[in-house]
Each structure stands twice: as structure tokens, then as C-alpha cells.
Amino acid sequence: MAHFNPWHDVSRGDNLPETVTGIIEIPKGSKGKYELDKDSGLLKLDRVLFSAVHYPAAYGFIPRTYCDDKDPLDILVLCSVDIPHMCVVEAKVIGVMQMLDQDEEDDKIIAVAAHDVSVNHYNELADLPPYMMLEMQRFFEDYKALEKKHVEVKQFLGREDAYRIINESVKLYEETFGAEHQQA
Asked: Where does Mg(2+) 2 bind (predicted)?
């Protein structure tokens, strides 16, 4: 019997790369590091964050994408309400945070909830209050520090770079997983 896996069986969105589907693994404010168990499709607790920090935005992945770190493409979704675990959200892409995690590229797409009027007027990173990007950067640089792991945020880039990264992750997904997982 085939089982449903959110990574492979949910649409990545109808208006790529401008708007994507985000599947939320970690709600904003969480200290739990949850992630999709790739085999079962269930959500697992990877660990509890070891430092006094919490996720600055809803965090998850874009289905049917694949990156060099062997995971789907990460996404941070800004929204005025808490988005629960495994919720599917239509997200408007506004930029990308490029970072290195243990010397491995680990891009994070930054988006806003498309159906939240309190944030969906943001069209690019420059529209955000300045503290938001700093908060994201500090979180990702700090949360692994007490685990003695090195994370470096290299730069924030705009929409066009985010679109390119999304398209590359779709292409890599299709090359890696083949026609049986391609979106209709």
C-alpha cells in the first residue's frame, strides 16, 4: 500500500517561483527542531534547541524541491498568526537568506503568507522592518553555537535570486527523483 509523503505528494504551487507552497514543520516561537521524516512522511522531533532562542518565523520546506544538502528547499514564512505543524500555506517569495551550515550551503527562502493582509503587501526584503532580517540572521547564527556547530549567514538576496534558487531546486528534484514524482 502506497503512503502519502508531503515532500513528494503535495503540489509545489501553481505560480512558481513567485508563489510557492510551504509546508510548515516548525511554528514561529518554537524551541523544538521538528523535521519531516523523509521515509514515513511523519513529523519527528529532531532535538530541542540548546540555547535561549526560538524560531523567528514559521519554518518548513517547499515540496518537490531538492538541494545539495539532500533535503527539500527550506522556507521561512512570515505571518501574523501562528501556523501549526504540517500546515500547507501559500507563500509569496520576497527573498533568500544564503548561509553556510557546517561549511555546506543551506539557503532559506523568505516569504510572506499570501492570504495574510498584514504581511502580503511586502514584495521584497527592503519592505520588511529592519529588525526582522537581523532577527533571522542572529537566530540561525546563534542557535547552534552552544552545540559547537558553525553557521554563517553569508548574505540576503532579493526575489530574482530566490526565484533562481527555487527553479534550480525544482530541476534537481526532477533529475534526482524522476518522472514518477514530477508535478502534474
From this structure: 74
